[in-house]
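testing teh design pipeline on a random one, pls ignore if ur not involved
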C-alpha cells in the first residue's frame, strides 16, 4: 500500500494511460518471448477500451496469445521488484500502476504447466496483504493455447479519473504516439484496438500515418554510446493530441519515455504540399535503457541532456531529412532578416547569407533573430577591439614596423567606419519611423477631434513634447526634461535642446499628466521653453495647436501668447524645472515656433505676417520688445519639411519613401 501511495500520480492524459500501456507492453513482450522471429505473424493482441465524457463507466481489456502466467511469470507477478524482465527494462512495478489506477482488476490466464495445460483466474485488489483474491486454478483442455486476459474497471480519483481520456479519438492518438517505435519495428505483433465503434489494426494502421521513413541510422557518440535514430514524415494526426507539431521520441526498452518537441529548433509548423505533414523521430540506445526510472515514465538525467542529444547528435540528420521544407522555411527566414536589418542596420554586419548562418535553422521569431545578430555583432566588435589593442600594445613596445602600423590603422579605421555607418543608419531609420507614425496620428486626430485618445501623453506627447513628471521622496511631483525627444521635426536646432520652462504652472502640468481628462494639455495651447545650454543667449520656444482646430478664443492670438510669455521670461518671474529663477537679459534671442493648421482665426491673425520662402508658413519678426522671430508652421508642412531635410539620409541608408505603417 505504501509503495503504491508513493507512486507518481498522473498530471497528463498520456500519464493517466500509462497503466493500460503497461498491460499492452506486457502483452507485447509475452508474445515476443513465445514466438520470437515469427511474432509479427503469429503474435496476437486485442485491446478494448470503453470511455465517455463523464468517465463513469470506464473499462478496458487486454488479451494476448503469449506465454501466459506460467510458473516463471506467476512467481514474477506475485513478487515486488522482480528481476524477471530486468533485461528489457521491467522492474516489477507495472502491476502496481494497475492497482493505483483501477478500482477492479480481473485476470484469466491459460498456460503450459508440467502436467499439461492449466487455467488460473483471480482478482487483483489494492490491499496491504492478500492482493490475490478469489484465485481459482484448474486444468484446461489440451487443445487450448496459452493466453492472458485482464479486465480493468473504474478509475480511481487520484489523478487518473481527471486525466484519463474521455474521447475515443484521444485513446487512439495517445496509443499510436506511445507505441510508435514498436509499431514501426520488426518485432511488432498483430494488435487490434477496439474503442467505441472504431477498430484499428496495428502495425498496418501506421502505413496510413507514416508517409516517409528512414530507419535505424547508427549514431556513434562519445558521451551516449551507440544510438539508433529513425526519421519519419507523418500525417498531422500523429501530433493531433500532443503539445506541438514535431517531436523526437526517446525510447527505453521499447517504451516511449519522453517526447521532446523540436518546433522551436525547426521553426516549422505543418509542411508538405498540402500543409498536413509533421516530423517524428525515434531514438533508442543502451544509454537510454540504463538511465530510465523504474516506472519507465522519466529519465534519471536532466532534461537539458535530451536537448543536448538532439542538438549535438540528431540535428544534422533531421535537417538533411527535412531539407525541402527547411529550404522553403529558410527563404522566409531570409525575408525576416532583411526586414530586421532594414530597420536595425547596426546588426547588419554582413550579407544576408552570412547573417543567416549565425541564426538557428528555422528560427522565425523577430526578437530571437535580432538577439542572435546583436550578440554576434558584439562578439565581432570585441574581437576587433582585441586586435586593435594588440597592435597598440606592440606599437608601444616597439615591436611593430611601419607597414604593420599602417595596416592596423586601416583595419581599425574600416571597422570603426563600418560600425558608425550602421549606427547612423539605424538612427536615420528611427527618424523615418517617427515621421511615418506622426503622419498617421495627425490623420486620426483630424478624423475626429472629439477623440483625445490619439493625443494622450503616452502617444503623441512621447514623440514631440520633452516633458516628464517624477515623484520625489516627499510625494510631491517634479517636472523634468525627458531623456530624449523628437523636436528635430520642427527645427534641427531643437535636436539637443533641453526643456526648461512652460507657461503653465508645474503643479498643473503634474496634475495633467496623471489626469484622464486633459492629458493633451501638455502638448497643445501652451508654450514650451527649451535651450541648448545654460547660457541665456538663445531660447527656443515651441507651441502646438491641435491639428484640425479652427476655433480660437480672442485671447488665444499666438503672437500675443508668445509675447506675453517672453515678457515673463525677461522679467525673471518664472522658475526652471530645478526650481531656480530663470535669468535672461537683453541679449537673449528667442526663436519661437507655433505648429498648427493655418486655418480659421489663426489664418486671420497671421495674415499680415511675412510668408516663408515656400509660401506655406508665416514668419513674424518684431521690431522691438525682444530679439528673434515667431514662425508659424502648418502640420503638413512640418512633416514635409522634415522629410525633405532627412531625405538625403534616407537615400543614403537605402530607406524607401513608403510609410513603415502602410499596408503591404
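output:
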Amino acid at each position: 500500500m505504501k509503495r503504491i501511495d508513493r507512486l507518481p500520480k498522473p498530471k497528463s492524459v498520456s500519464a493517466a494511460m500509462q497503466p493500460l500501456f503497461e498491460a499492452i507492453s506486457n502483452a507485447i513482450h509475452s508474445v515476443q518471448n513465445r514466438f520470437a522471429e515469427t511474432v509479427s505473424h503469429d503474435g496476437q493482441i486485442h485491446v478494448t477500451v470503453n470511455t465517455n465524457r463523464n468517465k463513469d463507466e470506464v473499462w478496458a481489456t487486454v488479451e494476448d496469445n503469449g506465454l501466459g502466467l506460467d510458473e516463471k511469470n506467476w512467481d514474477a507477478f506475485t513478487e515486488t521488484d522482480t528481476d524477471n524482465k530486468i533485461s528489457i527494462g521491467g522492474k516489477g512495478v507495472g502491476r502496481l500502476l494497475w492497482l493505483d489506477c483501477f478500482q477492479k482488476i480481473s485476470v484469466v490466464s491459460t498456460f503450459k504447466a508440467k502436467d499439461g495445460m492449466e487455467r488460473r483466474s483471480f482478482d487483483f485488489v489494492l490491499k496491504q496483504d492478500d492482493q490475490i483474491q478469489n484465485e481459482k486454478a484448474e486444468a484446461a483442455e489440451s487443445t487450448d493455447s496459452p493466453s492472458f486476459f485482464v479486465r480493468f474497471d473504474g478509475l480511481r480519483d487520484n489523478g487518473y479519473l481527471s486525466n484519463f481520456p474521455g474521447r475515443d479519438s484521444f485513446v487512439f492518438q495517445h496509443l499510436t504516439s506511445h507505441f510508435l517505435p514498436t509499431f514501426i519495428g520488426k518485432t511488432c505483433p498483430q494488435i487490434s484496438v477496439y474503442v467505441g465503434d472504431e477498430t484499428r489494426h496495428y502495425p498496418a494502421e501506421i502505413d496510413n500515418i507514416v508517409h516517409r521513413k528512414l530507419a535505424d541510422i547508427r549514431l556513434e557518440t562519445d558521451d551516449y554510446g551507440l544510438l539508433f535514430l529513425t526519421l519519419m514524415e507523418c500525417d498531422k494526426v500523429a501530433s493531433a493530441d500532443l503539445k506541438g507539431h514535431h517531436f523526437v521520441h526517446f525510447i527505453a526498452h521499447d517504451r516511449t519515455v519522453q517526447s521532446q518537441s523540436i518546433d522551436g529548433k525547426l521553426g516549422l509548423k505543418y509542411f508538405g504540399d498540402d500543409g498536413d505533414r509533421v516530423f517524428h523521430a525515434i531514438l533508442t540506445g543502451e544509454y537510454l535503457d540504463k538511465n530510465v526510472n523504474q516506472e519507465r515514465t522519466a529519465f534519471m538525467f536532466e532534461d537539458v541532456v535530451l536537448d543536448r542529444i538532439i542538438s549535438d547528435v540528431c540535428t544534422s540528420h533531421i535537417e538533411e531529412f527535412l531539407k525541402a521544407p527547411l529550404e522553403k522555411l529558410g527563404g522566409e527566414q531570409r525575408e525576416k532578416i532583411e526586414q530586421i536589418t532594414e530597420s536595425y542596420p547596426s546588426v547588419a554586419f554582413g550579407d544576408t547569407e552570412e547573417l543567416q548562418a549565425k541564426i538557428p535553422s528555422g528560427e522565425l521569431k523577430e526578437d530571437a533573430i535580432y538577439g542572435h545578430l546583436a550578440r554576434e555583432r558584439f562578439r565581432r566588435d570585441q574581437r576587433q577591439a582585441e586586435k586593435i589593442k594588440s597592435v597598440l600594445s606592440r606599437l608601444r613596445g616597439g615591436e611593430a614596423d611601419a607597414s604593420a602600423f599602417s595596416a592596423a590603422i586601416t583595419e581599425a579605421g574600416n571597422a570603426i567606419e563600418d560600425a558608425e555607418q550602421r549606427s547612423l543608419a539605424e538612427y536615420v531609420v528611427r527618424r523615418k519611423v517617427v515621421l511615418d507614425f506622426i503622419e498617421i496620428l495627425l490623420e486620426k486626430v483630424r478624423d475626429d477631434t472629439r477623440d483625445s485618445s490619439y493625443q494622450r501623453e503616452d502617444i503623441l506627447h512621447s514623440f514631440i513634447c520633452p516633458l516628464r513628471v517624477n515623484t520625489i521622496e516627499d510625494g510631491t511631483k517634479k517636472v523634468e526634461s525627458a531623456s530624449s525627444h523628437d523636436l528635430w521635426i520642427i527645427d534641427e536646432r531643437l535636436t539637443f535642446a533641453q526643456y526648461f520652462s512652460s507657461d503653465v504652472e508645474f503643479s498643473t502640468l503634474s496634475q495633467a499628466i496623471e489626469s484622464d481628462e486633459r492629458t493633451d494639455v501638455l502638448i497643445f495651447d501652451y508654450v514650451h521653453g527649451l535651450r541648448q545650454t545654460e547660457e541665456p543667449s538663445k531660447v527656443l520656444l515651441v507651441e502646438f495647436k491641435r491639428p484640425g482646430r479652427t476655433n480660437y478664443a480672442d485671447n488665444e492670438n499666438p503672437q500675443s501668447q508668445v509675447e506675453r510669455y517672453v515678457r515673463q521670461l525677461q522679467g525673471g518671474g518664472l522658475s526652471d524645472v530645478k526650481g531656480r529663477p530663470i535669468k535672461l537679459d537683453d541679449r537673449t534671442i528667442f526663436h519661437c515656433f507655433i505648429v498648427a493648421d493655418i486655418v480659421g482665426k489663426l489664418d486671420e491673425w497671421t495674415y499680415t505676417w511675412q510668408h516663408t520662402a515656400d509660401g506655406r508658413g508665416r514668419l513674424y519678426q518684431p521690431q522691438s520688445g525682444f530679439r528673434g522671430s515667431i514662425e508659424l508652421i502648418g502640420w503638413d508642412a512640418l512633416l514635409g519639411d522634415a522629410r525633405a531635410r532627412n531625405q538625403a539620409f534616407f537615400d543614403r541608408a537605402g530607406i524607401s519613401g513608403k510609410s513603415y505603417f502602410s499596408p503591404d
